[in-house]
Design brief:
alpha+beta, eight-stranded mixed beta sheet, 11 helices, 18 strands, elongated, binds zinc ion
Amino acid sequence: MRIVWTGIAALALMAPASAQTLGEQVKAEMPSLMTIYADLHANPELSFHEVRSAGILAAEARKLGFEVTEKVGGTGVVAAMKNGAGPVVLVRADMDGLPVTEQTGWPGASKVRVTTDEGVETGVMHACGHDTHMTSWIGVARLMAANKAKWSGTLVMIGQPAEERGAGARMMLEDGLYTRFPKPQYALAFHDAAQFPAGMIGYTPGYALANVDSVDITVKGIGGHGAYPQTTKDPIVLASRIVGALQTLVSREISPLDSAVVTVGSFHAGAKHNIIPDEAKLQLTVRSYTDDVRNKLLDGIARVAKGEAIAAGMPEDKMPVVKVDRTEYTPAAFNTPDFTEEMAALLKTRFGEQRVVQMPPVMGGEDFGRYGREDKSIKSLIFWVGGVPPAEIEAAKTEGRTLPSLHSPFWAPDAPAVISTATEALATMTMELMAR
Ligand SMILES: [Zn+2]
Ligand SMILES: [Zn+2]
């Protein structure tokens, strides 16, 4: 397949690309892109371990004449193409799979099993569709290389590790993404979407995805016999009060016009019916859009935990331990509003009004937000590309079942629709931003 592709690439670089429309060029690339997709899909890698995937991106970009640097921020890839004066445009794909055992029933399903860094044995799957992101990235690289005569500027394409850990973007930036390489004026990315039809494009001006913080609370108690509670300080009762009181943060302390989530997703304590344990552990996910709401929630959680412990009569040295790393989190993805509207108008012209729709923001997280947050003058946009086969939407409706979400072992996107749409959309925007 590789030999065939080299032939096509060589031909494409020689001239005929300009004779074809961008859509026709994408169509011509699809068989080769789907071969790459099948390979990436069958060989997913967990966060921080995207070595093989990064190698594929790097090799493809190198063949096209990009200047490629590997191991940027861990396994990250930076592929730059300097093509005359003009703006710098960054196009990003994330590369990691998830510790999920695939159950799509696809013939090409992932059979990969690994032991995680935490020692858990698990299947690995591209359950978030980052394989469609990487494949489209290669599609965009090919189109941009083939159409070099039509644009002027610097294209910086990056393969990012560890998005699922909310760490990869930060690691690439800390490793000099904006100092060792040209700093962008524009940053673009897409994410496949599990809730709307294949080939549809969704965009959200302003906040599109949320701040995501993880909080661990260790609620201390004084253990003892379940029959003599008066001799103990019961951490289960105290932790229960904390969980209850936390519900008032969003409902009573945050404006109803702001979005916020505090979910206690894990509550562990005790080992036996008649023993009051000396500790309970809570794990929370905390979501917001603005820095202000985020700070109010995180401050509020610490205050509630301590306040309830005081109310329960806990001694000073047994206050709950609230652990949250305020720098290591997934910041909200903010799409520069006027830039988003401009790009949406451009996409509507190319794909038609029906295929490009405005979407409400979601409380999911995406660390793509860091690329724009690093320097507010950078205009950034992450958009959605629908991946649900229309027949599947109809079937789900008649059978009254919900569609699998991203991260589901059943998430089986219409990959050709996602990849062809995303490749054409990203190439359209990138060429427009650097048009000669
Ligand atoms: Zn994900
Ligand atoms: Zn994702």
